[in-house]
Amino acid sequence: MPKPSTHAAFRQIYDENHSAVLAYCLRRASIEDAKDAAADVFLVAWRRFDDLPPSDQILPWLFATARKVLANQRRSQSRLMRLGARLRLNPPVAPIPPEITVVRREQDQAVLDALGRLRRRDREVIQLTMWEELPQAAIGETLGCSDRAVTMRLHRALKRLNHELGRHERWTTAPAPAPETKLTHD
User: Fold this and answer.
1) The domain that contains 59 carries what CATH number?
2) End residue of a domain, out of 57, 89, 121
3) Domain interval for residue 22
4) What are the Cα distances from residue 178, in Å, to 76, 125, 163, 185?
5) Quick check: is 121 in a domain?
6) Do 85 and 134 have their domain in common?
7) How deeply is 138 buried, as exposed, middle or buried, from its count of CB atoms within 10 A (0-12, 13-18, 19+)?
8) How many C-beta atoms lie closer than 10 Å to residue 161's C-beta?
9) Do residues 38 and 114 both lie within one domain?
10) Could you tell me which of 38, 35, 37, 47 has the C-alpha nearest to residue 10?
11) Phi, psi at 125, each rounded to 5°
12) How many whole angstroms separate alpha carbon 47 and alpha carbon 44?
């Protein structure tokens, strides 16, 4: 707790300089921002009371502090404006309703279960493709085979995965499209 003499000395600095610091801030910022800046200046002065210059140099020190506080305010406002612009470009995604989440989790689990029933070699090519999102050349390098072999392995592995999913009673697939019918004129 500061000494009573510190309180009195600070109060004197505040009383003698507040209007000048506020006027300085008002010439450089909106009324609300200027009031906030002036308050912050004296907060800094209070925290650094032991480092304050002699009384004949205190006002320039307070102005220098106000200049820094106002610069910080402008940077904060600029960051806030940039964030607002980014948010307008990328609006938040609407939350997913719980019933859809439950269905997705069930389907995700069905896929994971089916994937777990595949051979390690099939799982690996699917995971490298879908989860790691590696290009075919990198998958071929990882597995020690050609790009063409990767294509064939992936095709076969996905076929086996689809078969496993079809055997899973909780998994629902989209209905097959109706065959196209051609109209003929006799």
Assistant:
1) 1.10.1740.10
2) 89
3) 4-89
4) 59, 32, 21, 22
5) yes
6) no
7) middle
8) 19
9) no
10) 47
11) -70, -35
12) 5
pLDDT in tens, the chain (186 residues): 456 688 999 999 999 999 999 999 999 999 999 999 999 999 999 999 999 999 899 999 999 999 999 999 999 999 999 888 887 787 777 776 766 666 677 788 888 888 889 999 998 899 888 888 888 888 888 888 999 999 999 999 999 999 988 886 554 444 444 444 444 444
Task: Measure Cα distances from 140 to 96, 146, 151, 153 in Å.
Answer: 37, 5, 9, 10
Contact in structure between 93 and 143 (CB atoms under 8 Å): no
The total domain count for the chain is 2
In this structure, the answer to whether residues 79 and 106 fall within a common structural domain is no
